Amino acid sequence: MKYSSWMSKKDIKKNLNQTQSQKGGIIPLIYENDQAYGIDIANTIVIGSSGSGKTQNIILPTIKSIIKNNESFIINDQKGEMKQATETLLREQKYNIIDLSFENPQTKHKWNPFELPKKLYKENKKEEALNIIEETMTILFQEPAPPIDPFWTLSARDLATGTVLYLLENNKEVTLKEIYKTAQTITKKTLEELDKLGSTYCFLSGTLVAPEETKNSILTVFNQTIKDYITKDNTNNIISTTNFDITKIKTEKTALFINDNNKEITNVLIPVLISQIVKTVEIYNQKDNKLNIIIKDFDNLVTMKNYSKILMKSKNYNINNLITIQGLITIENKYNKEDIRLVAINMTNLIYLYSQDLRVLREISLVCGNESRCEPLATIEELQRLKQNEAIIKIPRLNPIKIDLIPDYELKWENIYQK
Q1: What is the SS3 assignment for 263?
Q2: How far apart are CA 70 and CA 252, in angstroms?
Q3: Is the pLDDT of residue 19 over 50?
Q4: 96-101 and 35-40: which strand pairing?
Q5: What is the pLDDT of residues 374-406, one digit of tens each?
Q6: DSSP 8-state class, residue 251
Q7: Residue 390 belongs to what H/E stretch?
Q8: Residue 63: how many CB atoms within 10 A of its CB?
Q9: How many CB atoms neighbour CB 252 within 10 A?
Q10: Which helix (H) or strand (E) holds 314?
Q11: What are the Cα distances from residue 76, in Å, to 2, 31, 59, 183?
Q12: Rounded to an integer, what distance in angstroms lies between the CA atom of residue 295 and that of residue 21?
């Protein structure tokens, strides 16, 4: 029986080069003689608690490698730190920079979550528009955890979807504020004017034909979900219009920074925006050029039910995904076991930096394998004592890597090119 062992530095360099299936941005791991050696970004998960060096050791070097390869990327950027660290390089490389904040009234860029479905509807891609509307509402109207009855949330979600379809059919403005206002005024009489076999009727009828008390309860859940977005003037203004072309993010060299200072709202809207961008790539069959989607603190976002599907489709559409999480406890509270399993099997690379989460430590120890019949290669105690800037990396078909990383602030990127 062959046991596991740490990969030697010589083998690391050899296999990192072999691991690169195509030219493009990488996750740099070794720097020698002004060359960066790394692994394909592919679908990568980085596990590290707060202060473990995720940004300096992984995120920033990866972004700079992406920029040097002229690839588009999206990242949630708390306090604008990523933009500040890369803006000079981006301008040198003539990137289209989109800086999106959902609370800053001075923000240059704005995005309406319903602009894309409206565009598709006008292009007679009505089924695609409906799919995006349903995905958007699934994220906005999160199902409550048991034992709370999901009926009210699901009904409010249908009401919202039906209201959007009603606005589109009547060529009306579609914003969250308009959806809110229209939902208060639609009546049974409105329903009678609709095609009873049409999607709009199907989504609206569950609420509008219900007993008055039931209807009012559904409307209450609907209003409570929407009001946080439309009662904050800055946020409402930013999400009421779109002034950049979402369909060109992958086809034109673009850096999209999503400022996530307003956690409560941004943690909902980030999954909506990412889902729509991936849908756009799929609908318009944008297979040329590479798009990198980097989600920091993925475990803080609201549940993305479709994330495993995004990972599965990514390779076909030349999309890389890199997420960071602090541990597994929050993930397990938000996702069911099957969703977690599907995400895990679609992750190509695993990078571990540090954690006190025993569930994480057991999983990493298991993934690294045994160095003898009874002895794990990486014990839980060893994983708990990993040094700052030290990482354990597992990539397909190879022994695990234990390596000292160099933080971005110690690198001179103007001298580095990758191999």
Answers
A1: helix
A2: 10
A3: no
A4: unpaired
A5: 899 999 999 999 999 999 999 999 999 999 999
A6: T
A7: strand 390-394
A8: 24
A9: 12
A10: helix 307-314
A11: 42, 27, 11, 32
A12: 23
